[in-house]
């Protein structure tokens, strides 16, 4: 057997071990072994890989930048909480071979190949897990154990029938192709086969015209359906003979339904499909809070990995809290807390390398100021050069994302030149609303004291670094003193930051004024100071009034980040989503508390038939041999009148192929703002249900018809092959 490619596996500046890496024959598994001992150290599946980063795009590899050139370095990033794998190849050519090879294997456009390979891989993996005595055969007792592992509670007589049908050699065991037959019988999708036969005259194939009928009648595809049908056959039909005859088999039909074209998410909206020539205030912008933190707000770790993860996730608004460190070198951390510190220069370097990884659109940057202005501060000659080369040097009062490509916006307070002074009382502590609790008020005072995201000490305007102040052009920070005051004295180039409690009070007391304000000026919302555990508030209520920069703690998984990921999963994941027309009009009458204020069509009805689930994962904390009792809950997040949820009954002891066949129905008054969240839970009658998986998307991106929903884990990563099969009907 070939040893594979010799590369360095790196865990720290001092820990660099040589390992042989090799892609297995199934093209889905990579193992690596020690050069010294020859023992296999670990292996991982291609399906576990989220992305591949090129160059010094990790904290560890950045620390080795002087020792190894970026052309030889790359990072394999896994789904979930598994740590990254940092590698150094022997040459730039070897590195490119692995980088491009891995990217091709994980590319969703290679779906047909990947789907087939994954199927074979899952079959092989299940066989190896169930073959307890490792004799290459599986007896019926081992098959029964396998069914438990696969989340299946099957009648013993039925399981024995499937076993005997697959045992062609009548040996009392399954091996090789016999187990493949058993697995295929086990995973037979009766609901899909029934749908296939409904449109197939002979029950064995769909002709081109029959497939066109299905696409028009059920999937509501109304343009270029014949061309689309031909493309689907060429792409997903596994039989060469069938492809030549322009027909689709049942296997090809299932592959289409499981593909991106058969997804509930409109594939056309995955691309950059929105107008990017509107003013910034007309967009929702993916935004993070204290981006550098990857744990809690008081004692947690600061890491450049926080910036890398946020940017790779599509975040376009980052926070850089900069302070003087040892020897006057600026550091980034959560001021006046016990969080760890990272050098400011490393943050600058990281942003320069990764800011436009997913998007050339601008990431506005924010930072609290260092309490010094000596030559080593963040605004000094040695460290302002990168900022000046990226920072916007001149723009209209209302620049657009398109105009700001490959530029960074600095948000902060200003001195000199563009304004003779800061706006007088703008340096005072912001007014705190009556319902702000003590901790939140203290958080606002702390932020104001250190400059509320300004560069340099805001209480002493001479200490603000002039060079960086000159770069603050569009996002000049001002205190918010009411909508009337803002309309009379503020400019479109200014921005205010509000606590979540202050924003809620404004939503409650002046919803329409808030929407109008956000039609011409940027507003940023940040979490309460009470959220020391890095928990999140719901961003939906802030989006309902058009707040653009709704900052969340990206490191904390949960419903709030599901909504954020769901909203920004469209538009090429560029981090910008255009607000609906009625939220871009400065004279709008819209108030989210009164849906009738929205001018437009009457409410629509969303009908969802939840048909089935496939290979749902076990709950991590479940006992050995336990099988889940899955139910599906559908949640609508939008204006108050649209907030709703409904759920199916639970299916007892079947996480492998549960059938619900239940219909849920919702009325949407403001569909343009609605997000739809599908949640699968393990029912528990004595305690809280356990989370199994979820998928969230904007209503505007839903494709009607028979669709698969590919579930995501709690932290937003894929859990193949887990999915739901649904039918979507929309009535206007």
TrEMBL record:
Keywords: Calcium, Cytoplasm, Endoplasmic reticulum, Hydrolase, Lipid degradation, Lipid metabolism, Membrane, Metal-binding, Nucleus, Repeat, Transducer. Residues 433-442 have a biased composition (Acidic residues). GO terms for biological process: intracellular signal transduction; lipid catabolic process. It catalyses: a 1,2-diacyl-sn-glycero-3-phospho-(1D-myo-inositol-4,5-bisphosphate) + H2O = 1D-myo-inositol 1,4,5-trisphosphate + a 1,2-diacyl-sn-glycerol + H(+); a 1,2-diacyl-sn-glycero-3-phospho-(1D-myo-inositol) + H2O = 1D-myo-inositol 1-phosphate + a 1,2-diacyl-sn-glycerol + H(+). It comes from the Eukaryota. It holds the Pfam family PH. Residues 369-385 have a biased composition (Polar residues). It is a peripheral membrane protein. Residues 584-713 form the C2 domain. Residues 118-153, 154-189 form the EF-hand domain. InterPro entries: C2_dom (IPR000008), C2_domain_sf (IPR035892), EF-hand-dom_pair (IPR011992), EF_Hand_1_Ca_BS (IPR018247), EF_hand_dom (IPR002048), PH-like_dom_sf (IPR011993), PH_domain (IPR001849), PI-PLC_fam (IPR001192). It is found in: Cytoplasm; Endoplasmic reticulum; Membrane; Nucleus. Its EC number is 3.1.4.11. This is Phosphoinositide phospholipase C. It comes from Furnarius figulus. The lineage of its organism: Eukaryota, Metazoa, Chordata, Craniata, Vertebrata.
